[in-house]
Amino acid sequence: MRKNTLLARGRASSTMAPFVVDDEVKLDALLALITKRVGADQDQLMFVDLEGVNLGRSGTIAIMQLLIPPSPVVYLVDVYRLGAKAFRLTTADGTSLQTVLESPNTLKVFFDIRNDSDALYAHFGVNVAGIIDLQVIEYATRNPRGQYVNGLAKCIEKDLPPIPGWSLAKASGRRLFAPEEGGKYEVFLERPLSDEILKYCEQDVMLMPQLLAVYGGKLQAGPAAQLQGIVDERIRLSKTDTFNGKGRHMAVGPRLAKTRFGNTSTSRELELVRSPRLVRLCRIDDDSCIDDLSSQLGAVQVHAGEATASVGAGDPRARCL
């Protein structure tokens, strides 16, 4: 039987529920998994998103979503509950979420890094590096580009085939947290997280690999040579005292020179985006977690036999921690 891949089938969620990482034992297992994956493949991609209340320096980070292909499991790191430990807890080999996010050698894909970088730096002193900004790449692939960048929802609607259930899950989540629809952002701080919020947190990061594969196939060498400088500048500005992550100015696209010739050398991040290897690196396989993650579950059980109680006996997610 051929394995299912989300890249081919266009699904907004895995066959397995997202896994909430809300204690130190689970976080330690997740860090061990990241170390294993990055050690096995230096081109390993991590897809990352943040949710919170007024996300930025004046707000709160509630959840960090992580997808580590080819595993179909989205990990929801409960930053609100763990606090600084979410980024500072360190394994025996020196790995923490902070070192992962700050490493230029570990490639992380965000959609619009600016507010995420602002929040991570302001609240936890995290200086992100090794960033691929999906929003910037999408803008560079357009012809004509226009004046404004697109949001993630518009990119999904415009550039992916119809996703069953995506619009419904998106709308259900927005009704809970969007003030203009009668919701409140504080819903991200309520525990336990509702099924609607869990689904909302999962689905966007699950679709980011598909978008990156689409845009990587369109990205030309000329624009690609300029993009890492744009991403680095976004990160630099997000840490300045005058940065304001709210307002219409955030929708204005970056300036790209209209050059056909000249220096087309690119960063490692952008070389990978334009590489034929990208499709493989973005593929999500429903069966991939069985072997890759079972050893991490074993480590959790050895150190704290009750740590997986929240998963439940027989829950298939237990294979994927």
From TrEMBL:
Organism: Cladophialophora immunda
InterPro entries: 3'-5'_exonuclease_dom (IPR002562), RNaseH-like_sf (IPR012337), RNaseH_sf (IPR036397)
GO biological process: one example: nucleobase-containing compound metabolic process
Domain of life of the source: Eukaryota
Signal peptide: none
GO MF annotations, alphabetized: 3'-5' exonuclease activity; nucleic acid binding
Residues of the 3'-5' exonuclease domain: 48-209
Protein name stated in the entry: 3'-5' exonuclease domain-containing protein
Pfam family for this entry, one: DNA_pol_A_exo1
